[in-house]
Amino acid sequence: RFSLNPIPPSAGQSVKHSHDKIPITLPALLQSTRRKMAGVNSLDAVKRKIKVLQQQADEAGEKAEILQRQVEEEKSAREQAEAEVASLNRRIQLVEEELDRAQERLATALQKLEEAEKAADESERGMKVIENRALKDEEKMELQEIQLKEAKHIAEEADRKYEEVARKLVIVEGELERTEERAELAEAKCAELEEELKNVTNNLKSLEAQAEKYSQKEDKYEEEIKILTDKLKEAETRAEFAERSVAKLEKTIDDLEDELYAQKLKYKAISEELDHALNDMTSM
Fold first, then answer.
1. pLDDT tens digit string along 77-123?
2. Residue 134 near residue 214, CB atoms below 8 Å
3. 74: Cβ contacts below 8 Å, ≥ 6 apart
4. What pTM does this model have?
């Protein structure tokens, strides 16, 4: 315990302990008390600051976890987009290869059709020669009529097969995966037509060698020739339709390329968004 005694003028202002007589001045006591109070206030401030820092650290940790999850989600989305783009690229490549093969088959078929038309023109010229050189042989005319019916039948069969090829070309628009098989079928049909045209040519040559009395039925043969010419023109029209079908297939390829470009833009946007998220996380 400390006791405060009156300050005698002779001893100066001092305070003595009641037991050991050690003097303590009043200003020193007040200063010591202030230091103790200041220490208590400083400790509370430090505790409050530590608590605030802990809260900030917890918030920063939660934010870091959220950002980490976002980064993982963005990464997964980017990988999925890359897989979709790769799959689309493979699909476009396959379609392009199939279209190239179909175009090659179609070009070959058109070339053979052109050759068949030339052969038909030659046959028509041969028949005109027959008209000019024909004589009036009734017995051989009957044979010519039979052969002409056979030629007409062959032409009708060729027309039917051309219609079948045209229908198959229309179906190609919706069935690209079967284009090669149908092109092979068209090629086989063209080969058959070539063989049949050869037979027609041989028959016409036989008619040329045998015809002597052709003038009596000249009008009838002119009508038959006109029918055959019309059928050849129809074949040319079908060939033009086949070319338009190929143009439609090319437009389909263009649409697929546009879709690929859109997927690439989507992938670029996702990559930029992920880069921004990574930069934000790094800046923290």
1. 888 878 887 887 888 788 778 778 877 887 887 888 788 778 767 76
2. yes
3. 270, 273, 274, 277
4. 0.25
